[in-house]
C-alpha cells in the first residue's frame, strides 16, 4: 500500500468517497469532503467531465471551471455503461463509505447499479444523489440546470433592479448550495450510521435548494400574501440596506438597527434624521426608504467612500466598498484567512470552514491520477 496517498490530517481522515458526479453540485460536495481529509476518488467517463470544455480560460486543454471544483481528488476513467466498467465500479463501491452521483434519474438503475439494487449488497454505503427535481413528483426525474432552477423557484423574480426584468444571480448559486446541502446530508447520514451501522440515501435536489433560498421573500409572502418584487441592491425589509453613492465610489450600507442608524447619521453630519418621524423606527425607515436614500446620498457626496467605510466599520456600522472579484481575491484579509490556495500548477479558493484541531488541507491538484482508493 502506498501510504503517501493516505490523508494524515483533517476531520474526515479515513473516509473514502467515490465521486461519480460531474458539472458542479456533486463535484463541489466531493471537493469539500476532500478538503477536510477524505480520500476522494473521482470517476469520469472516457470523454471526461463536461466542464473540462467550459472555458476559456484553459490550461493544457482543461477549463478553469473544472479546476475550481476538483482538487483533493484522484482521478480515473471508467465507461460505466460497459460490463467491465460496472464490474470495476462494484469493486470500488465495496471500498467506499460515501458515493456521490448526479446521473439522470434511472441511468444507474438501467446499468444495474442503482441505489435500490445495491442497498443490500453494500448496506453501510452512504449514497448521495444530486438531481434536478428528485426522483418522483410532478417534475420528478427531470434534468436540472442552475439557471432554469433560478427561474422556476422565484430567485430570478426577486433579483434585479426594481424597474428592470428578472435577472439570474451572477454565479451558480443553486448548484453551489445544493453541493453544500449534499455535504450536510452526507455528514448527517454518517453520524447516524455510527448508531445503526447502516447507510442511507441522501437526496439533494436543485429545486429544493432553490426554494430554500427564498428567505425573507417566502417568509414575507407567508405572512402578508403579497408577491415579492425586485428591489435592486436594497433589502425588502430593512433600510438603509443598499448601495449608496459617496463622493468617490459606491458603498454598501447594511444598517440593521436603530443604534447603527444613529451612529451613521452622527458620523456623516445628519443627526437630525434620527428625529424625523419618517425614520424613527426600522419599520418607518423601510416604508420611506426612497426619501431616506436621497437624503443620505446628499450627505455622503462629501465623503471618500473607502475611508468612510473603514471609519464606519470601526464604530460598529456595517459598510463596505463595492469591490471587483480581483480586488476581493487580492485583499489582505482574503490571504490572512487562507482563502487563496496554491499547489504546483494550481490556484484556487480555500475552504471556508475552519476547524481548530483538524484544519482543511490541500494535497492533490485537479487531474491527479489514481487507480484505486489508498
Helix and strand arrangement:
Elements: E1 16-19, H1 25-35, E2 39-44, E3 58-59, E4 62-63, H2 64-67, E5 73-77, H3 83-95, E6 98-101, H4 107-110, H5 115-118, E7 126-131, H6 146-152, H7 173-196, E8 201-205, H8 206-212, H9 217-224, E9 241-245, E10 250-254, H10 258-267, H11 282-287, H12 289-300, H13 305-314, E11 319-321, H14 325-330, H15 332-336, E12 340-343, E13 346-349, E14 368-369
Parallel strand pairs: 1-2, 1-6, 2-5, 5-14, 6-7, 7-8
Antiparallel strand pairs: 3-4, 9-10, 10-11, 12-13
Question: TL;DR of this structure?
Answer:
The chain is an alpha/beta fold and 374 residues long.
Please bin the fraction of helical residues: 25-40%
> Would you tell me the overall average pLDDT?
95
Q: What CATH architecture of the largest domain do you see?
A: 3-Layer(aba) Sandwich
CATH superfamily of the largest domain, called what?
A: Crotonobetainyl-coa:carnitine coa-transferase, domain 1
Word description of this protein:
This is CoA transferase. It comes from Comamonas antarctica. The chain is α/β, with parallel strands linked by helices. The chain folds into two domains: 3-213 and 339-369, 3-Layer(aba) Sandwich (Rossmann fold); 241-245 and 250-321, formyl-coa transferase, domain 3 (2-Layer Sandwich), CATH 3.30.1540. It contains 15 helices and 14 strands. It has helices at 25-35, 64-67, 83-95, 107-110, 115-118, 146-152, 173-196, 206-212, 217-224, 258-267, 282-287, 289-300, 305-314, 325-330, 332-336, and strands spanning 16-19, 39-44, 58-59, 62-63, 73-77, 98-101, 126-131, 201-205, 241-245, 250-254, 319-321, 340-343, 346-349, 368-369. The strands form four sheets. The chain has a seven-stranded parallel beta sheet with strand order 8-7-6-1-2-5-14, sandwiched between helices. It has a three-stranded antiparallel beta sheet with strand order 9-10-11, covered by helices on one side. A two-stranded antiparallel ribbon has the order 3-4. Helix 1 (25-35) links the parallel strand 1 and strand 2. Helix 1 crosses helix 7 and helix 7 (173-196) packs across helix 8 (206-212). The longest helix has 24 residues, at 173-196. It is elongated and about 75 Å long.
